[in-house]
TrEMBL record:
Belongs to the FAH family. Residues 73-275 form the Fumarylacetoacetase-like C-terminal domain. Gene3D superfamilies: Fumarylacetoacetase-like, C-terminal domain. InterPro entries: FAH (IPR051121), Fumarylacetoacetase-like_C (IPR011234), Fumarylacetoacetase_C_sf (IPR036663). The keyword Lipid biosynthesis does not apply. This is Fumarylacetoacetate hydrolase. The keyword Metal-binding applies. GO terms for molecular function: hydrolase activity. It comes from the Bacteria. Keywords: Hydrolase, Metal-binding. It comes from Gordonia jacobaea.
């Protein structure tokens, strides 16, 4: 099942096109793309038994963030060994956690406004929580996952790394810095949801390529560690980390430029496409 946000309305993407959930369910489920996760079990039961109508054609540009208003967004740093190495840091003993504010969320296709000359890319697998999780063991963690989607953790490196106290959450939360999509794909669609190919290209040049099985802290372990501290709520997002190949890890460093297109792909889910355009310039010193 592929769950999307089409023009602000909850839709299923099928082989025949997009199916509006509110209309197909005769109002049993509303149009809000985020609210459905609070009724996850009921929704899955309906979707698997419903005689869905033929879908209608749609433009990828009309797809929004499939979960536009999560209560919480968690992001994990240094969760691939090769990325920790390129960052010059030790492998973490615990998952480094920060947040991306939800006003930074965007759909899978669109413009990325560059506020400075030091904006970097980070391809990420994003987990969507489907059932509330508190003190959940890794063994049972997949039971709390609604599905997976593609994400980009765009990062303004100057703001992120400003001394003496880095500002990870602010540096990664400019408008449009958290595109996700094109859909939330349920776990039954994957042969192995823990081992997916992930890549990122800039103007056709491969910058990142890896597999999600290379995570230091697996999805079940992330859910276990996070839910030991606080409740994970239906619709919450977890950006699980990025493989090596980011611009800030290169020598010389390489950041995004106006006119470039970033394509982020994950096997079995789809792709994001962002075109870099001029943004409001931030001239105030980050200090």
């Amino acid at each position: 099942m592929r769950i999307s946000n089409l023009g602000g309305r909850l839709a299923l993407l099928t082989d025949t096109g997009a199916v509006d959930v509110e209309k197909a369910s005769a109002g049993q489920f509303g149009a809000d793309p985020t609210a459905v996760y609070a009724k996850w079990d009921e929704f899955v039961a309906w979707a698997r038994s419903a005689d869905l109508p033929a879908g209608t054609s749609y433009d990828d540009a009309d797809l929004g963030a499939p979960v536009p208003e999560p209560a919480q967004i968690f992001a994990i740093g240094l969760n691939y060994r090769d990325h920790a190495v390129e960052s010059g840091l030790d492998f973490p003993a615990e998952p480094p956690v920060f947040t991306k504010f939800r006003t930074s969320l965007a759909g899978p296709v669109g413009d990325l406004e560059l506020p400075t000359d030091t904006v970097d890319w980070e391809a990420e697998l994003v987990v969507v929580i489907g059932r509330a999780a508190r003190d959940v063991s890794a063994e049972n963690a997949w039971d709390h996952v609604a599905g997976l989607t593609v994400g980009q953790d765009f990062s303004e490196r100057t703001r992120q790394l400003v001394p003496p106290a880095p500002q990870f959450s602010l540096g990664k939360s400019f408008p449009g810095f958290s595109p996700i999509g094109p859909a939330v794909v349920t776990l039954d669609e994957f042969a192995d949801p823990a081992d997916l190919e992930i890549s990122c290209t800039v103007d056709g040049e491969t910058m990142q390529h890896g597999r999600t099985s290379e995570l230091i802290f697996s999805i079940p372990v992330l859910i276990e560690r996070l839910s030991a501290v606080l409740p994970l709520l239906p619709g919450d997002l977890i950006f699980t980390g990025t493989p090596s190949g980011v611009g800030g890890g290169r020598s010389p460093k390489r950041f995004l430029r106006v006119g470039e297109e970033i394509v982020t792909r994950i096997e079995g889910i789809g792709e994001l496409r962002q075109k870099c355009v001029p943004g409001k310039r931030h001239t105030t010193a980050f200090a």
